[in-house]
């Protein structure tokens, strides 16, 4: 059962991670809008998802409690026995194994997190490959989870994580909580379609378009404050950008190649 209480291990790891990121890598992480956070039991939907620092920005912006739980790729996370054991002990990750054909396990996970007063975080772009300072297309899974759980939705804007180097500036902004009814407005009468129906999928797509419209201008507003002039040194740029990413191709205007040269 995903706990909303923070364990001693989690608190210690959180403090150590902040020390490394802020004083070792000298990352500058700025957050606004913390006053909008509910007490717990909500969905947090974040974009633009551009790097491994995005979940950490979310954790940095939110308090120790209630705990935040992420859906994450199991193959990308459990690359060694010690990482798998450590993640299971630390908590915070609900592993996803590719190839599944149903959303039911994700719905069940979200309901368990919310029922315990935790935070269920999603990054609906589903990939870190995309343009800097702009959001990419959202997948609709998050919207189906929102419709079926009925939990409040907290939009979370992220910028500045597409490339990392010593001293990199990053920004995030927490927007006021909302609901499917508030996002859809008069276009929806409040009736929930049958689960798994075409009507439910159409409603999820409409909800997705509305949340994209809410987050897009906020990401574009905060992004310029994270951009350094070309003359600024970018120490360890390649190493830090790919530190916790699997080597691959990034669809960006100026992609950073992995340390092994893969493009």
Brief descriptors of the model:
263 residues; alpha/beta; 7-stranded mixed β-sheet; 9 helices; 14% strand; globular
Low-confidence region ranges? none
Helix content: 25-40%
Give the CA-based shape.
Answer: globular
Largest sheet properties? 7 strands, mixed
Strand order of the largest sheet: 1-7-6-2-5-3-4
Helix and strand run? HEEHEHHEHEHEEHHH
Beta-strand residue fraction: 5-15%
With helices defined by DSSP (H or I, 4 residues minimum), what is the helix count? 9
Task: Report on this structure.
The protein is an alpha/beta fold and 263 residues long. Helix content is 36%, strand content 14%. Strands 1-7-6-2-5-3-4 form a seven-stranded mixed sheet, sandwiched between helices. The longest helix has 25 residues. The relative contact order is 0.18.
Summarize the structure.
This protein is α/β, with parallel strands linked by helices. The chain has helices at 8-24, 54-61, 74-77, 81-90, 104-115, 141-149, 180-184, 198-222, 237-241, and strands spanning 28-32, 42-47, 68-73, 93-96, 119-122, 153-159, 169-174.
List the helices and strands and how they pair.
Layout: H1 8-24, E1 28-32, E2 42-47, H2 54-61, E3 68-73, H3 74-77, H4 81-90, E4 93-96, H5 104-115, E5 119-122, H6 141-149, E6 153-159, E7 169-174, H7 180-184, H8 198-222, H9 237-241
Parallel strand pairs: 1-7, 2-5, 2-6, 3-4, 3-5
Antiparallel strand pairs: 6-7
Helix pairs in contact: 5-6, 6-8
